[in-house]
């Protein structure tokens, strides 16, 4: 492994001497941070990279996303292991707000390309988290070949997602051997992180697709206010939250009895690029919009209730006997009561990728959901939604992915180490 050090982005000029190991042999950063300091609530601070679970799952959702999937072009298992080691070291540095490499962006020799691309110089860590996951094609290729000797380690829960009614998936925005979710409160920090991982991966991986997102569409902590999606509704009210520790074990983290061993403490990510036909939505009456979602647009309260966090009463009727919540409303169909208790930790982002040449915004929700077992959670919920959700008239699923996200990285280890041991 090559010798690399991290350069403090804020103290760049005087930084070269102060190296403190990040935990990955041969790599160094410049300061040891306590967990409390690392997870400081302010939007500029760092989030601790190492831990029992990967950061970026229950971490209070940051405001910006850069999500990318990569295909592995290398054919040798050792090359993949080397890449994961290099990526882990770089991720630990970037999340601590440091340049990657021994000399970083601007202190290297003039004859060589800089080790760090440089656009984050001077920027704080901005709560950057980097979360990795492995897709089905990482384990077996399209012909069923055992690419890296990992076929037997593919988790049963890492299913190929079935076709859902209405799916219009673009293969160029779907799948991928490896996914990296970069979240930060500064878009440039998130972009810098993915760009530098892609750069490290030259010759081993290629970017399959990437997606920028803004305005987190979920809250993952009770300390956060609920944001709004591009339909203008509060999104994330009835989400799993980091404070729900018992539920997180039941619904989010892979347990020892689930197996495989290398996934215990990890979680499964389903990504869906969902286009929203917002021009049509914007011509829909307020009353109909609220019926479709099943909540009030202003308060976010269940229909017939006053407060956002009031429990939903699915039996409530108006004076003429009609149910206050339509049978095909989104929240009714997605609610655990109608899905054998299944819940998700939603962590999606809004996106607007310009317009589509036909005068319509290419806009929507980049849906990200973490769970313990997609066979019991995302798949049945989405099967029910795809059949009956009143919202289907206004949305189209155009991209899809499923990834096994291993547990957190201990100091001295690397992303997915147990998978390769
Ligand atoms: C398969 C899972 C889900 C998909 C896909 C999905 C798409 C989607 N959702 C909204 C907007 C809202 N969703 C809300 C709640 C909600 N959605 C899901 C699942 C999927 N949504 C769940 C499990 C829930 C919680 C249901 C409950 O227990 O009450 C809400 C209400 C606010 C909230 O609780 O978060 C909104 C609004 C859009 C726009 C969308 C696709 C574009
Ligand atoms: Fe939803």
From TrEMBL:
Name the UniProt record assigns to this protein: Deferrochelatase
Annotated EC: 1.11.1.-
Compartment(s) where it occurs, according to its Swiss-Prot or TrEMBL record: Cell envelope
UniProt xrefs under Pfam families: Dyp_perox_C, Dyp_perox_N
Family, per entry: Belongs to the DyP-type peroxidase family.
Function: Involved in the recovery of exogenous heme iron. Extracts iron from heme while preserving the protoporphyrin ring intact.
Primary location group: other
Cofactor: heme b
Signal peptide (from-to): none
UniProt keyword annotation of Oxidoreductase present: yes
Keyword annotations: Heme, Iron, Lyase, Metal-binding, Oxidoreductase, Peroxidase, Signal
Stretches assigned to coiled coil: none
Gene: efeB
Dyp-type peroxidase N-terminal domain segment(s): 54-214
InterPro entries found in the cross-reference section: Dimeric_a/b-barrel, Dyp_perox_C, Dyp_perox_N, Dyp_peroxidase, EfeB/EfeN, TAT_signal
Enzyme class: oxidoreductase
Domain Dyp-type peroxidase C-terminal as annotated: residue spans: 226-409
